[in-house]
Write a structure and sequence with these properties.
The chain is of the alpha+beta class and 120 residues long. The chain folds into 2 domains: 27 residues; 85 residues, no CATH class. It is built from 2 helices and 7 strands, in the order αββαβββββ. Strands 1, 2, 3, 4, 5, 6 and 7 form a 7-stranded antiparallel beta sheet that branches. A hairpin with a 6-residue loop joins β3 and β4. The N terminus is likely disordered.
């Protein structure tokens, strides 16, 4: 009986920790994605081109929340017939045919300006 109570208590602790990791008291949630230092030419830049920006690629809940809150209707993505997109300035969010969301953007270090970080 003591062993069963211990197992139940341990499982409740694990479940509680998972719930806390999903969202903190202020509503912040974990991000899923990647980033890279980049230059203006995102694909095959010249070796001498300065890496003057950081580009971010988000997926999952953060990308879905961003896509759904961007104003206006989604349009067909120019790079793929299987995706729709929404864009506001340098922020580009995509939704594929399976319902997977991704968003990308870049930030130029010198100015802090948000720039497009997509490439077909």
């Amino acid at each position: 009986m003591k062993y069963t109570n211990f197992v139940v208590a341990a499982l409740l602790c694990i479940a509680s920790a998972s719930a806390l990791a999903a969202q903190d008291a202020n509503g912040y949630k974990p991000l899923h994605g990647s980033y890279s230092l980049a230059s203006k030419t995102l694909i095959d830049p010249a070796p001498t081109e300065a890496k003057d920006r950081m580009v971010f690629f988000l997926e999952g809940d953060a990308a879905a929340d961003m896509f759904k809150r961007l104003p206006g209707p989604a349009t067909r993505d120019a790079c793929s017939d299987e995706m729709t997109m929404k864009q506001a300035g340098g922020l580009v969010c995509l939704k594929d045919a399976k319902g997977k969301y991704t968003c990308s953007f870049g930030i130029i270090f010198k100015t802090g300006v948000l720039v497009d970080a997509t490439a077909c």
